[in-house]
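Hey, quick one: can you model this chain's 3D structure?
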Amino acid sequence: MIGERLDARLATEKIKGFVGTSEYTLRIRIWTVLIAILLLNLLDHLSQTRWSLPNLVSMLRMNLFTDSDLSPWLGNPFATQPIPCPESQQPMLGLA
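Sure thing. Here's the predicted structure for all 96 residues.
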């Protein structure tokens, strides 16, 4: 039923503003969004903190580039500290 609606919508609407507007490209984008929502729902289910979807996405964005384990973070996101990086891996900026 959803596939039929999607086929009808893709056949009747012109979608502008994307780099690729072919039917194949749009199908890939739709599947990508569905997989992302499925993964976010899985993380929400595994989390002990009950998040709304926008709050979960914003917290994941804030912690995206920190080096921390996902399992403890899902259990208690406010108490989990990032794993410190050894100083040998820290880039040195010679600005002075």
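One thing worth noting: The two ends are 64 Å apart (CA to CA).
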